[in-house]
Amino acid sequence: MALVLSSDAQLVRDTAQQFFAEKSPIEALRKLRDTRDPLGYSPTLWQEMAALGWAGFLVPEAYGGSEFGLLGLGLVLEQAGHTLAATPLLSTALIGASALVLGGSEAQKQEYLPALVEGARIFALALEETPHHAPHRIALRAERTAGGYRLSGEKRFVLDGHVADTLIVAARLADERIVLLLVPGDARGVMRTRNFMVDSRNAATIRFDGVEVAEDAALAGGADLLDAVLDRARIGLAAEMLGSSTEAFERTVQYLKERKQFGVLIGTFQALKHRAAAMFCELELTRSAVLAALSSVDDGSDKIAAFASLAKAKACETFFLVSNEGVQMHGGIGMTDEHEIGFFLKRARVAQASFGDASFHRDRYAALLGY
Amino acid sequence: MEDLEVFRVHARSWLAENCPPSMLTPLVEDEVVWGGKRATYPNPEAKLWLDRMASVGWTVPTWPKQYGGGGLSPAEARVLDEEMKRLGCRSPLNSFGISMLGPVLLEFGNEAQKQEHLPKIVRGEIRWCQGYSEPEAGSDLAGLKTRAVLQGDHFLVNGHKIWTSYANFADWIFCLVRTDPGAKKHEGISFLLIDMDNPGIRTRPIRLISGASPFCETFIENVQVPAANLVGPLNHGWTIAKRLLEHERRMIAGFGERNRGDGRSLDELAKTYSGERDGRIADPVLRDRIAQHAIDSQAFSLTVRRAAEEAKSGAAPGPASAMFKLYGTELNKRRLELVLEAEGTQALGWEGDDFTRDELQATRMWLRSKANSIEGGTSEVQLNVIAKRVLGLPD
Fold first, then answer.
1. B248 given a catalytic annotation
2. CATH of A223-368, one of 3.30.70.260, 2.60.40.10, 3.20.20.300, 1.20.140.10
3. What's the CA angle centered on B183, arms B181 and B189, to 5 degrees?
4. I need a surface site. Which of A335, B42, B141, B206 has the fewest CB within 10 A?
5. A303 and chain B: CB distance < 8 Å anywhere?
6. Strand-pair partners of B276
7. Domain B128-236 listed as CATH 3.40.50.300
C-alpha cells in the first residue's frame, strides 16, 4: 500500500496543482455561475485536461489510455478540489471509464473508450431516484423488447447529466435484477432538466419515457458492477473533498494570522488555536484514509469496499467540520458572496450527499465488518 | 527486498528455537518484565527470554551494536516485529530506558554516557524512571524548581518530583533540574542522571482512582550527583527535555494499541452484552458510535503507518508526535467509554465474584485511561504544540 507518493505520482500532483491554480481558480466557477453558463463547465478546459492524459488514467493502453491508476487520478481530483474546479473528471474519467473497463464488452470498449480518453465524450451515471443515496433502491424499469430494452422512470441528481453524451442508467429488470445500460443522451424519450445546485456544479433530473435501446447497450455485472463503480466514485470524490477541505483549512489558518481584533491577531486566541489544531488532526487522518483507499484499488485489494466507506465517511465529516469552521472563523466577511470561503461550504454539502454521506458509510462499514 | 526475506527466515527460525513455550502465551499483568536490580521473575522463563533476546540485542533491535543493540535497520526491525507477532512472542522487556532515555542518550549523550548506560538498558539490568513533573510544574513543566548546584566535581540536588512512574521500583532517575535560577525559565534547566541508591532519595506511591499506584512522589534531599552525569551542555536541558517528550508521546499514543484487555473487539462486546439482531448490534445508536470509533481508529493507524513511511530511517519524531499523542489517547478513552456502555453495569463492578476478571479489568482500565490525556502533556498542551509548531499560529 502506497501511503507515500512515488516521484511519478508527485509529478502528476504538481502538474495538476499548477494547472488548476492557473486555469480554473474559484473565479472560473463564479463566472460559470453568474453567467448561467448553459454547460456549467468549460469544454476547452476539459480538452486540455484530456490532452494531459488525465481522462485516460484508468483506461488500458489498447484503448488509448495510460492505465496510470486511481492513485494518479485521485491526486488530480484532489488538486481540482483545491479550486473547486467544475469538470467532468469524476463523471467521465472516473465513473464512465470504470464502468466500461470493468463491465464493458470488447465492442463497447472499442466504441466508447478512445473517445472518452480524447475528451470527446462525456458520461453520466443515472442512479439516484430519491433525495438520499440508496444505490439498490431502483424503480426505473428496463422491459425486454424484441431487440433490446425499453426504459421507463426518472433519475435525479445525475452528475453532469445535462451535458453527457452517454448516460449509464441503473435499471431494474423484470426478474428484479439490476442492470447498467448505456443510453445516448439524445435518445428518443429522454427528457433532461438541468438542476441548479447550491454548489453551482452540474446535475440533472432525467425522465425516461419508453426509451428504446438495443441488446448491446447492457454492461455486464449488474449490481456487483454498480457497487464496484460506486466504490471507485466514492474514493475519487473523497480525494476531491480532501483537496477542498485542505484548501478551506489553509485559507482559514492564514486568516487567523492576518485578522486583528482587540489589537492582536485572532490567531493568538486559544479558543481558535485548539479548534484549528483539531481540524489539522482530522485532515491528516482523512489524507491517510484517502491514500489507502486509492491504492487499495490499484493493488486489487479484496477490501476496496471497506476502504471506500472509510475514506468517504472521513472525508464527509472533515469537509463538514472544516467548511463550517471556515465560515465561522472568517466572521462577517465569511458570510459574504464576495468572499470565496462560502463556496467551500456549499460544495461540502453537495459532495457529502453524493454517493453516500457519513452516516450511510458508517452503517455500511459496520455491515462490512460483520456487525 | 531479497535481503529482508533472508533476514525474515533467519529471525523466524531464531525465534522459534529460542522463545520459551510460556513466552508464546498471552501476557499476564504480573509477568510484564521491566528489568532492574530488584526485578523478580514469577515466571523464570521470562528471565530466560530476556537474556536470550538481550544476547542478540533484540530487546532494542534498532540501537547500534556497539551499545548492545541489535543494529537492525528500521525495515529489519519491522520484520522482526512482524515475526514476533506472527509467532505470538511476548515482548521480552518493557522499559522507560528503551522508550524514553535511550533515544535521547543516543542523540545528546557523550560517548562515556552511552557506553555506561545503554548496554544496561538493553540487558534490562537498570530500571529507569522519569523525574519531570513537580507539584507546581505540571503542564507548565518549565516552571520546575528542583535545584542542582554545581560544587566542583558534583551537583548538589534538592527537590520534589511527582508522577514519577514506578519510582519505587526504579534504580536510576533521569531528572530535569534548575541549574540557573536567574535565567529565563526555559534557559536555566539541565538534564541530569541520578543513581537512586542514595539515602537522600525517598519515594512514596500515590493511590489513583483506579485503585492502583503506578505513580510516586520522589523526594530528593542533599543528594550529590557526579558532574559527569550531566547530559548535554549545562542550562541547555530543555531541548533534550522536549525531545524526550516527543518519544514519550509516541509511547503513550501506542497504549491503546497494546492494552486491548482480553482482545475482544467492541462490536463483539456490544453483541454479547447488549444484544444482536440479524447479525448486527441491536442498538443502532451504539452500533453507529462503534463504527465511528472503528473508522477513526483505522484512519489513525494508517496515519501512524504513513508517518513511519515518511520519516527517513531512524529520524526522530517531530512536532507531529503531538498529534499522535492527542489523537491516540483520545481514541483510547473513547474506546473504554464504549466498553463501559456496551457492558452496562457489568463493567461497573469494583471487585468480587459477581464480575468476571475481564469485566473488572475493563473498569480499572477505563479509570486508568483518563490519565492518558494528562500524562506526557495534556491534550490541551498537545493542541498548543500543534497550533504553534505545526500551524505556525502566533503566541
1. yes
2. 1.20.140.10
3. 65
4. B42
5. no
6. B281
7. no
